Amino acid sequence: MVGKRGFLRVAEAVLGVIIVIGFLIFIIKSNKNNSEEFGSEGKIILDEIAKNDSLREIVLNGTAKPELEEFVKERINNPALNFSLMICELDSACAINASYPANTEFYAAERAVSTNLRSVEFNPKKLKIFIWRIL
C-alpha cells in the first residue's frame, strides 16, 4: 500500500504540470493569432486598393485622400483599430504623422501602386498604411 500512495502523488504532480503547460500553450497561441489578424488586414486592404482602377487613380493623383480613408474604414471591422494612410514617392520613406499614446501596438504595410497599360505616363507611388491599437 505504501508504494501505491507514492506513485499516485507522482502521477498527480505530472498531471498537474501537463495541465499548466497546456494552459500556457493555449494562451500563447491565442495571443499570437490576434497579432496575425491585426497585421493581415493592412496587406489585404492595400491589395484591394491597388486592384481597383478608380482607387488606384486616386492614389496616383494623390488628391482625394478622404475617399481612400472611407474605403479603409469600411474594410476595418474592429472599432479598436486606428489607421493612417500615406501617399508618397516610390523612393521616399513615408513616416507616420499621426499622434498616438505610448502604449500602442503598431503595424505598417506598404504597396507600390502603378499605372495600368493604357496610361501614357508612368509615375508610380507608394501607398503606406499604419494601423495601431491601444493596449
How are the elements arranged and paired?
Blueprint: H1 2-51, H2 53-61, H3 65-75, E1 81-89, E2 104-113, E3 125-134
Please describe the structure with a list of short key phrases separated by commas or semicolons.
single chain, 135 residues, alpha+beta, 3 helices, 21% strand, elongated
Rg: 24 Å
Strand sequence of the main sheet, in spatial order? 1-3-2
Helix/strand order: HHHEEE
Average pLDDT over all residues: 82
Percent helix: 40-55%
Q: Please state roughly what percent of the residues sit in beta strands, choosing from under 5%, 5-15%, 15-25%, 25-35%, 35-45% or over 45%.
A: 15-25%
Based on helices, strands and strand pairing, what is the structural class?
A: alpha+beta
What's the count of strands?
3
Overall 3D form = elongated
Q: End-to-end span in angstroms?
A: 55 Å
Query: How is the biggest beta sheet arranged?
Result: 3 strands, antiparallel
- The number of helices is 3
Unreliable residue stretches: none
Quick take:
This protein is α+β, with helices and mostly antiparallel strands.
Architecture overview:
It is a single chain. This protein is of the alpha+beta class. The protein has a domain at 41-134. It has helices at residues 2-51, 53-61, 65-75, and strands at residues 81-89, 104-113, 125-134. A three-stranded antiparallel β-sheet has the order 1-3-2. The protein starts with a helix and ends with a strand.
